[in-house]
Specification:
132 residues, mainly alpha, Arc Repressor Mutant, subunit A, three-stranded antiparallel sheet, 5 helices, 3 strands
Length: 132
């Protein structure tokens, strides 16, 4: 424990001497660097003398806007299935929808569920759908 106290004391003394030397260096730097002007002096020096009245700058014309390009939206899976069902007269079963769209049966079932909830299609019989 005494060894630790001795080590801490020597460390504290070393830090004090280091701090003193840093303070001396800072004082030398302050003396060598010219002092900056205060804000009030800078403002007073920067104030221009009165000028003769000048004409206001001519107004700029607003920049011409480019025409907005219309983006074509890709058909969603729901749009694709709805289009196939709307085209058919007798109705379409889920196996045919899966074959024409390439979607798996689970995805077809989810899409058909959404379309039925939105009243876009109706079920004629089990697995056979027509437009509403």
């Amino acid at each position: 424990m005494k060894e630790l106290d001795v080590a801490l004391k020597t460390l504290a003394e070393g830090l004090r001497s280091l701090a003193q030397s840093v303070e001396k260096i800072a004082e030398k730097l302050e003396k060598s660097v010219p002092k900056k002007q205060t804000k009030a002096k800078r403002k007073a020096a920067a104030k221009p003398t009165r000028k003769a009245k000048t004409k206001p700058a001519p107004k700029k014309e607003p920049a011409k806007k480019l025409p907005v390009k219309k983006t074509v939206k890709k058909a969603t899976a729901v749009d694709t299935v709805l289009a196939i069902i709307n085209i058919s007269k007798k109705g379409v079963d889920s196996a045919t929808l899966a074959e024409k769209t390439g979607y798996d049966k689970n995805k077809i079932a989810n899409i058909v569920f959404k379309l039925r909830k939105l009243d876009k299609i109706k079920s004629v019989s089990k697995g056979l759908y027509t437009k509403a």
